[in-house]
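step=encode ok
step=design start
structure_in=
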């Protein structure tokens, strides 16, 4: 099979190509087709680590007994989920109806014709944070509806910082290391910092955040820009963590859940993690040793606050499914304020509705909401590419070899730059 040339799109380029000025018009000009057929559907999603997905779907099923949605759970890691969804789409299987797509997969699924184009007017997009809506578009047309967003946060043990006389969470990496040294005087065994450093999509996220938080970029205006002193400083923050001991060695095996378990077991002082950890780590059923002992701050950076990578999940309709009208109505149901609020309350996952971040009752329950909103609004996107997976795998390989000490940061970044140039051009 001939591979289509990789296209990296900036929002500006996509808008220019479609002649679309942005805003809330219908996107690229071509109207979405009519979606027909009512009846049972499936909802395909990554492993439900929140335990709440089934409850959300139950709420739908209760109201729509003849259009039941069955949940199909895929693995925990983003890469493994994508693999299953791609396999299904390539086989044109009708098993999957509504797909819970990571924000970085929109281009691939849209360009290959695996998901239906959607009508913007069918969803409350004007209520959603603008960057989340952009992630569901390809060349200005909507293919996926933002249901949860995601932004990186610094979880920290406020009890341990206070006991060591540190009065505020760190805003720079130097502050973070200094705070750690103080805390370790009384807790020599505690791991200072961890994030998602296993070789998978989470590493692409954490590597990009480190580079961006040092003032560098991975890809800018569609061009790889990763072989720079700023990018090296970013990667070195992580590499030095392993050589100097402020990142525990086992963090090389951490995806989201491994890190969450370590934080909840009291093994980490600082943890870069998504919002979903908040509710779990605060559980008072005995599953967390740190309930009530931590707080959340913006990510630190080289010279000041760092920058988050934009994460999140959007729902799309498989081109090959039956009952597309039901699939559309299911997405409308999940994109509505009531389900968004319920999900936030139960799981602490980032909603896409902007108003929920300013709701006093919700801010009382989750004091980090204003910080998270800022982090999402300012977050850096990962490259938008039809062959995004190749781009991400290149980033993961380069970053992982540097973290393991197999390559110097300099070598890894020079090789990554060359690889990205072959994938997306100079
Ligand atoms: C979270 C984010 C997603 C990201 C993934 C990486 O699920 O929402 O965008 O790709 O983590 O592990």
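sequence_out=
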């Amino acid at each position: 099979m001939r591979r289509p040339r990789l296209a990296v799109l900036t929002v500006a380029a996509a808008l220019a190509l479609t002649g679309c000025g942005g805003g809330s018009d219908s996107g690229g000009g071509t109207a979405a087709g009519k979606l027909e057929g009512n009846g049972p559907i499936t909802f395909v999603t990554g492993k439900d680590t929140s335990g709440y997905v089934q409850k959300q779907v139950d709420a739908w099923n209760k109201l729509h007994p003849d259009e039941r949605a069955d949940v199909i759970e895929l693995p925990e890691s983003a890469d493994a989920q994508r693999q299953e969804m791609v396999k299904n789409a390539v086989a044109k299987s009708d098993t999957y109806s509504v797909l819970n797509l990571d924000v970085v997969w929109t281009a691939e699924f849209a360009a290959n014709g695996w998901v239906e184009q959607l009508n913007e007017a069918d969803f409350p997009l004007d209520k959603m944070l603008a960057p989340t809506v952009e992630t569901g578009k390809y060349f200005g047309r909507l293919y996926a509806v933002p249901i949860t967003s995601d932004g990186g946060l610094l979880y920290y043990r406020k009890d341990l910082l206070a006991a060591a006389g540190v009065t505020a969470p760190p805003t720079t990496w130097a502050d973070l290391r200094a705070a750690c040294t103080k805390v370790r005087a009384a807790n020599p065994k505690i791991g200072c910092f961890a994030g998602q450093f296993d070789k998978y999509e989470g590493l692409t996220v954490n590597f990009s955040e480190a580079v961006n938080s040092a003032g560098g970029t991975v890809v800018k205006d569609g061009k790889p820009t990763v072989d720079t002193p700023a990018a090296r400083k970013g990667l070195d923050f992580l590499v030095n963590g392993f050589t100097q001991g402020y990142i525990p060695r086992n963090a090389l095996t951490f995806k989201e859940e491994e890190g969450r378990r370590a934080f909840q077991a009291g093994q980490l002082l600082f943890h870069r993690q998504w919002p979903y950890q908040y509710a779990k780590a605060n559980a008072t059923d005995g599953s967390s040793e740190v309930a009530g002992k931590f707080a959340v701050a913006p990510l630190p950076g080289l010279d000041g606050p760092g920058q988050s990578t934009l994460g999140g999940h959007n729902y799309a309709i498989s081109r090959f499914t039956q009952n597309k009208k039901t699939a559309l109505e299911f997405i409308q149901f999940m994109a509505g304020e009531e389900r968004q609020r319920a999900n936030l309350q139960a799981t602490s996952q980032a909603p896409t509705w902007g108003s929920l971040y300013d709701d006093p009752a919700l801010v009382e329950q989750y004091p980090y909401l204003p910080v998270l909103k800022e982090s999402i609004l300012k977050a850096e996107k990962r490259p938008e590419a039809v062959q995004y997976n190749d781009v991400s795998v290149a980033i993961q390989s380069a970053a992982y070899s540097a973290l393991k000490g197999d390559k110097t940061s300099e070598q890894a970044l020079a090789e990554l730059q060359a690889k990205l140039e072959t994938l997306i051009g100079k």
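step=design ok
step=annotate ok -> The two ends are 25 Å apart (CA to CA).
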